[in-house]
Amino acid sequence: MTNIKYRFRIDRLEVSYTASEDVLESLSELAEGCFGEEYQDNVKLVRVDSRNYKNEFEVYTISETGWQAYGLLQFGSPNPHRQYVYLSVLNERLYDGGLHLLTYIESVLHLSFLRVSKLDIALDANWNLVRSFYRIWRNPDYAFILLGHRTIEDMTENISEMIHISTGTRKNISKNRSFSLSNSENSLSLTGYNKSNEIAATKKKYIADATEFKKIYRLEVRMSSYKEVRKTLGTLPMNDEELYCRLTDENTLLRLFVTCLSRLIRVKQGRKVYGLLECLT
């Protein structure tokens, strides 16, 4: 296939930090004392109401056009498993080069990096990955290994782990197809869908502008807990600090993506086993 183009990008990112009691107290009191806003070194915190955290702030950074929303900072959860400081980066900042500000915000707020706790990586392509997937999914010459242990060879076997969704017209009810696969905890998952349709519906034009494809088809792997991120890093091998430093490196995202994909689904033909991406072109 000629003129194939693709990009690997982060589509969701949550980073966990630690901080001293003095820093946490200072952040909380300063924000309250300034009526919910704190200005310091081009970073602004705006307090928002939260059901799950004692302290939750919208984070803003200064840009050429003024203050720009960057993400959400949270700490003080009653959940014993959420006892750190969490910064979730706004989706738009993941596409406009805003990731380079992470370490600056960390420094300004006197936080210490702990780990990447949630991470979604998207493969955006200018050709129909979804159609290619269904072409091999329906081919009896292939078997599939799901979630690292279950081999699907029988074309009539029920597969509860894989969900298929379609929308369309009365004439063509499956015009737009998508699929998803996840483990039992939903902490590691894969989705495949027509991203252009979603962009049109959600007005996320910045994604199309960043990718520069006329049509965008997406495969996306999602790691919704630090345990899944850690498992993926352990197979490379790569540690948390290396990942944090390489979040803008597309080759690193490729390695993470392929590793996650292998944990979720592989393709078997006879005695040979392939990665899914090898079979989609």
User: Number of helical runs?
Assistant: 9
Strand count, sense and barrel status of the largest sheet are:
11 strands, antiparallel
Quickly give the structural class.
Answer: alpha+beta
Strand order of the largest sheet: 2-3-4-5-6-1-7-13-12-11-10
Strand content bin = 35-45%
Shape label: globular
Taking all residues together, what is the mean pLDDT?
Answer: 92
From the N-terminal CA to the C-terminal CA, the straight-line distance is 7 Å
Order of helices and strands: EHEEEEEHEHEEEEEHHEHHHEEH
Portion of residues within helices? 25-40%
Low-confidence stretches: none
Radius of gyration: 21 Å
Architecture overview:
Helices cover 28% and strands 37% of the residues. The protein is α+β, with helices and mostly antiparallel strands and 281 residues long. A hairpin with a 2-residue loop joins strand 4 (55-63) and strand 5 (66-75). The radius of gyration is 21 Å and the shape is globular. The termini are close together.
